[in-house]
Amino acid sequence: MDNTAKILIVDDEKGLRIGTQRLLESEGFYVESAENGTDGISLGTQKEFDLAIIDLKMPDIDGLEVLQTIKKDKPNTVCFIATAFASYDTAIEATRIGAYSYIPKPFTPEELLHNVQQGLKQRKLLIEAERLKREREENLLAIADEKSRLNTVIESINDGVLVVNKVGEMVYYNNVALKLLEIEDIELGEYLLDKIPAKISNQIKEFLRAEDGLPKSTSEQIELKPNNELFVETVSSPVYHSDGKFAGVVIVVNNITEFKRIELIKNQFVSMVAHELKTPVVAVMGFIDLLLDKKIPLTDDQQHDYMSRSSSRLKGLIDLVNDLLDISRMEIKTKQREIEELDVREVFESTLMFLEQLAKERGIVFEQKYEENLPKLNADQNEVTRLFTNILSNAIKYNKENGKIFIEISSSKNYLCIKIEDTGIGMKKEDKERLFSEFFRIKNKYTRNVSGTGLGLTIVKRIVDSYHGKIEVESEYEKGTTFTIYLPIKTK
Amino acid sequence: MALIAIIDDDPDIIEASSLVLKSKGHTVLPASNPDDGYKIVIEQKPELIILDVMMDEPDDGFFLAQKLRKENITTPILMYTSVSKTIGFEYGQGDMVPVDDFVEKPISPDELVSKVDNLLQKVGS
After folding, report:
1. Least buried of A43, A234, A276, B61, by fewest C-beta within 10 Å?
2. How close A299 gets to chain B, by Cα (Å)?
């Protein structure tokens, strides 16, 4: 784009028009001319001229009207009125309606050029003014936009946000903050520090006390309500004015209750696992130390007893590790399933056979009832076997000596129903509620000598859930327990 | 030669520890839960108590120790733990627990004997 100034000449006097054009062109300007008002308007409104020199008296349209029309459309075109009938009134009128100045006719080249130079300066100012104005408008628009955008953003986050000025008055907040900190009535500009928990206000006060605020953010985990009911993490940071002066503090409040709960559960789980893994190792070490210690005399029977007890503890440890691995596999769902059509009765009976010896040792008998033509089940055989084994072995282990186990497998329209009822020790209501949680083992006078990993029913529940089945437990303390498992079947 | 109570829910630990202590001429009173343990302590007044932390609950050994101390029973207590640096449970600070010695399982026969001897000597002097 060239920087040559564009000048429009509107004049019905041919000689003057051409003369002016030549003069200006020789000075390096780009010039167009119109020989009447109509053409002048059409040129002046179609193109953006830097300057327009308009003759006042033209036969078709009056110069003032041409001026007005061009100015209306191109307000930054600097217009001169050229007139041979210069009068004070015309001059006033011309400037009133937008002429920059008027040039009395006839004019010398010097006069013309001087006016053109002045006009171009004015043109520059006009354009700069317009640019500034536009910029300011854009800024205002941006600010308004920014503010509402910021509001939306801050309201939509899950963290509470509070901003206080350097005297502790609230200048900004979102509703999450009010809810988390249980602030009921507060208005912008109100003193905030006595309305929020002391631990947080102390954090803020530290910033306010330090002359220019503290240089860094501080964060703290605060238990707002005891027993892990409400735990927050607050991050306080100084806010500065654009000139670098300390303005206040922004506090971001993050509700970390759930995180804390999970952390606690995880830590407890790790502790429990460590304890459960270590216990059998300790027992075995105790026996091995005895067997190795020459100062402690042992009979052959004792030696054998300790070795076989060690062996069974180690077996228990293996079971536990396997259970843990199963659970973790189920959790990360990497376990490869082999879904096939299963004859449930067949799987169940082979599980029973496997457990027969265990039952015999305790004098426990099974009573079985199977519905004719049970529908097939689409499932992984290992998982179903595992499910039955865990439930049945519990029914044996937590039964009374010479007890009974009633088994009934039937089907409804949508479910296979496996009911296993024992005449065992049963459980209390509070124990029943914790039955499926990891490592939970009912401890009472009946269960002391029963071994187990505490994971059997956790696994059962997870298997049943993974098939979208359900499991029901009915139990009466000292009388017995009935587990009913429903597994969905494919209806044809 | 002393009368020593062992309160632990693991029968194998009781068995092995008892045998070690018996080989040194001590008499052992076994109990497999806090209630039975409490009864034995009250009724038979052992000279030393070996007490497991985790029995029916993860901390019931501590509660038994506290209960005994509250009742002004000053019999030395050697506490067995299996996971001493327990995370997620509110215990494990030795100074808060009213016991005389702490030992993290497993404990070798020699270590057990020397710990027991130490504690018995303390009472004797």
Report:
1. A43
2. 12
Mutate to test the interface with B, among A278, A291, A305, A311 (most CBs of B within 10 A): A278
Residue A212's pLDDT is: 63
B23 contacts in A (CB within 8 Å)?
Answer: 295-297
What is the domain range of residue B47?
3-124
**Mean local confidence (pLDDT), A235-262:** 88
Q: pLDDT band for position A133 (50/70/90)?
A: confident
Contacts of A264 in chain B (CB under 8 A): 88
CATH of the domain at B117: 3.40.50.2300
Q: Which residues contact A458 (CB under 8 A, 6 or more apart)?
A: A327, A436, A437, A438
| Cβ contact A275–B54 (<8 Å) | yes
Domain count, chain B: 1
Q: Enter the ipTM.
A: 0.84
Q: What is the largest CA-CA distance in chain A?
A: 143
In terms of CATH architecture, what is A339-488?
A: 2-Layer Sandwich (3.30)
> What pLDDT, in 10s, does the model give residues B56-98?
776 788 889 888 988 989 899 998 887 655 544 445 444 466 7
pLDDT digits (tens, 9 = 90+) for A275-296: 888 889 999 999 999 999 888 8
Which of A268, A290, A298 has the CB atom closest to B109's CB atom? A290
Non-local CB neighbours of A276 within 8 Å, separated by 6+ positions:
A320, A439, A453, A454
Sheet holding A101-104, edge to edge: A30-34, A6-10, A51-55, A78-83, A101-104
Chain B residues within 8 angstroms (CB to CB) of chain A: 9-13, 15-17, 19-20, 23, 32-33, 54-58, 82-83, 86-89, 105-106, 108-109
Class of domain A159-255: alpha beta
Euclidean distance between CA atoms A350 and A343, whole angstroms: 11
Give, in order, the Cα–Cα distances in Å from A488 to each of A376, A472, A484. Answer: 10, 14, 13
- Chain A residues with CB under 8 Å of B33 CB are 448
Q: Is A436 helix (H, G, I), strand (E, B) or coil?
A: coil
Which of chain B's residues have a Cβ under 8 Å away from the Cβ of A276? none
Listed by start position, the domains of chain A span 6-132, 159-255, 264-332, 339-488
Determine, for residues B12 and A287 on separate chains, whether the beta-carbon distance falls below 8 Å.
yes
Close Cβ partners of B63 (under 8 Å, ≥ 6 residues apart)? B34
Highest CATH level, class, for A264-332: mainly alpha
- Kindly identify which residue of chain A lies nearest to residue B34, measuring between CA atoms: A444
At A160, the pLDDT band (50, 70, 90 cuts) reads very high
List of E strands, A275-364: 339-342
| Cβ-nearest to A274 among B11, B33, B83 | B83
Give A6-132's CATH code, choosing from 2.40.10.170, 3.40.710.10, 3.30.420.40, 3.40.50.2300.
Answer: 3.40.50.2300
Question: What one-letter code names the amino acid at A305?
Answer: D
Kindly give the residue spans of alpha helices, DSSP state H, lying in chain B.
11-23, 34-44, 60-70, 109-124
Q: How far is the alpha carbon of B68 from chain A, nearest alpha carbon, in Å? A: 22
Contact A395, A418 (CB under 8 A): no
Which residues from B are below 8 Å from A302, CB to CB? 19
Under DSSP, the state recorded for A445 is: T
Q: How many CA atoms lie within 13 A of A342 on its CB side?
A: 23
